[in-house]
């Protein structure tokens, strides 16, 4: 296809496109068909070092660039992304599977991070005060942390890139980006857009690789990277945190989720079902914010399950490029197998399948929208991030019971609750151990809001007014009074 053909397939280092030193390439496949889309460069550790060196060389000049210049580069990139919505949406659909309608929504969401941080670039502030003893003026400035390593996942290939690149550019940091090997094309297309927007050579460098551990670890231990921002699994996040410890690298971690969704007896069921569909089925369920454990009050559980099942069963599964498709393929066979194994385990332990639950025939990594009830407490699906279109419903009787169950996890990224009682809404939201709460809504992501979790769901926040703080250091200068 033209959109695939037009994307550069090489590494982006020092403002130029380069083959991997070894000449190796990796295959990018379409999960809807299993067919190869193209080959892109497969970086080695040596390629990673070249990328970091380019970022280090560019850092001083980029940090000294006027905030307005950085702002306008981001704003131009925003404008280019918006004008190329259809091409970028199709590219994402081809390499990761989501329906075109969702891909278009992601383009708009992703572009907004560039617009948001273009505005934040010119608002980096500091301060001055007189010391309590009156002897010094305390001058506080803020400076870029330095070269950053950004690691993005495959599930939102454009938005995860802009959410990290935007604040880094706005703050004056240079970047090495390592996208997921399943979805490198969107990141490479984004690099071309930023170059077109006027980003200086070396500020952004991209290494695509199948050897993530081999490329990343030497960079973290090498002493030149000063900031790591990672989105991915908690298991990998722990490993990266350990590697960052040797050189005390500043870290931001958006890790795994196990989001609870609570439907109280006084909830508007139309709102609750609609919110659950969004929280569960956005991106085929392949989201760290996806509703993983659905708790419904016993008095409304049967009606809720009936309504949700009807909605899930009516969804059209198919190639994301085909008109009318609601649910595209999962990212790969391993992802599909994981979802199916969790369903089979739940059924083995007594769960009832209301719709779905069977592997489809034919090519591609498709899995049907599935609703389960009667989940046993020892089912693996309760403690495992599903990352697929499977809604697992359990019941509860009291508010305390629901909150206790919701908090019974090592994760704390997102949570959702549905109730028309304002006192209960605020009370439960305060008690839930999650970084983000959806109150009578299934969508919490917004570029203007601080995105992130607590407990083992991560460290730091992305987006919002605090998003740029992750890429800035404070510097305090003592100035004697009279000096």
Question: How many DSSP H or I helices?
Answer: 15
Give the percentage of residues in beta strands. Answer: 15-25%
Q: Would you count the extended β strands for me? A: 20
Radius of gyration: 23 Å
- Helical amount: 25-40%
The low-pLDDT segments are none
Shape: globular
Q: Give average pLDDT, whole number.
A: 97
Largest sheet, described in full? 7 strands, mixed
The strands making up the biggest β-sheet line up spatially as 14-15-16-13-12-17-18
How would you classify the helix and strand content by structural class? alpha/beta
State the end-to-end distance: 67 Å
Write the layout of secondary structure elements.
Elements: H1 2-5, E1 11-13, E2 16-18, E3 25-29, E4 36-41, H2 45-63, H3 67-83, H4 85-96, H5 100-120, E5 127-130, E6 136-144, E7 148-151, H6 159-171, E8 175-178, H7 184-196, E9 204-206, H8 212-221, E10 227-231, H9 234-245, E11 250-254, E12 259-263, H10 269-281, E13 291-297, H11 301-313, H12 333-348, E14 352-355, E15 370-373, H13 380-383, E16 390-396, H14 399-407, E17 414-418, H15 422-431, E18 436-439, E19 458-459, E20 472-480
What does this structure look like?
The chain is an alpha/beta fold and 483 residues long. The chain contains 15 helices and 20 strands. The protein has helices at 2-5, 45-63, 67-83, 85-96, 100-120, 159-171, 184-196, 212-221, 234-245, 269-281, 301-313, 333-348, 380-383, 399-407, 422-431, and strands at residues 11-13, 16-18, 25-29, 36-41, 127-130, 136-144, 148-151, 175-178, 204-206, 227-231, 250-254, 259-263, 291-297, 352-355, 370-373, 390-396, 414-418, 436-439, 458-459, 472-480. Helix 4 (85-96) crosses helix 5 and helix 5 (100-120) packs parallel to helix 6.
């Amino acid at each position: 296809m033209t959109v695939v053909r037009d994307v550069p397939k090489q590494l982006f280092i020092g403002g130029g496109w380069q083959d991997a030193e070894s000449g190796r390439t990796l295959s990018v496949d379409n999960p809807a068909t299993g067919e190869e889309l193209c080959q892109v460069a497969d970086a080695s550790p040596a390629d990673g070092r070249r990328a970091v060196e380019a970022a280090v060389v560019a850092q001083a000049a980029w940090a000294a660039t006027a905030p307005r210049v950085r702002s306008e580069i981001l704003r131009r990139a925003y404008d280019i992304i918006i004008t190329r919505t259809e091409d970028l949406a199709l590219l994402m659909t081809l390499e990761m599977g989501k329906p075109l309608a969702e891909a278009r929504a992601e383009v708009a969401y992703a572009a907004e991070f560039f617009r948001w941080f273009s505005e934040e670039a010119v608002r980096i502030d500091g301060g001055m005060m007189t010391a309590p003893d009156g002897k010094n003026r305390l001058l506080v400035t803020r400076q870029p942390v330095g070269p950053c390593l950004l690691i993005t996942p495959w599930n939102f290939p454009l938005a995860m890139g802009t959410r990290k690149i935007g604040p880094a550019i706005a703050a004056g940091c240079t970047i090495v980006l390592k996208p997921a090997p399943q979805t490198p094309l969107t990141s490479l297309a984004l690099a071309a857009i930023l170059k077109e927007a006027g980003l200086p050579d070396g500020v952004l460098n991209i290494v695509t690789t199948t050897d993530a551990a081999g490329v990343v670890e030497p960079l973290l231990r090498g002493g030149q990277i000063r900031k790591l921002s990672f989105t991915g699994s908690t298991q990998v996040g722990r490993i990266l945190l350990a590697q960052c410890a040797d050189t005390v690298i500043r870290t931001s971690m958006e890790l795994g989720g196990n989001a609870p969704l609570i439907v109280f007896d006084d909830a508007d069921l139309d709102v609750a079902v609609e919110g659950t569909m969004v929280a569960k089925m956005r991106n085929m369920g392949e989201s760290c914010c996806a509703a993983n454990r659905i708790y419904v009050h016993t008095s409304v559980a049967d009606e809720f399950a009936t309504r949700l099942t009807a909605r899930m069963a009516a969804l059209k599964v198919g190639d994301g490029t085909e008109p009318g498709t609601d649910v595209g393929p999962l990212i790969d066979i391993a992802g599909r197998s994981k979802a199916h194994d969790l369903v089979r385990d739940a059924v083995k332990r007594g769960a009832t399948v209301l719709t779905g639950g069977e592997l489809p025939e034919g090519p591609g990594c498709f899995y049907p929208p599935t609703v389960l009830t009667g989940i046993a407490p020892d089912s693996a699906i309760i403690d495992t991030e599903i990352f697929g279109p499977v809604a697992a419903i359990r019941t509860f009787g009291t508010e305390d019971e629901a909150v206790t169950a919701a908090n019974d996890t090592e994760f704390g990224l997102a949570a959702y609750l549905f109730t028309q009682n304002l006192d209960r809404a605020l009370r439960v939201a305060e008690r839930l151990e999650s970084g983000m709460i959806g109150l009578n809504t299934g969508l919490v992501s917004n570029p203007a809001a601080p995105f992130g979790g607590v407990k083992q769901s991560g460290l730091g926040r992305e987006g919002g007014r605090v998003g740029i703080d992750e890429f800035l250091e404070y510097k305090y200068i003592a100035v004697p009074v009279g000096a």
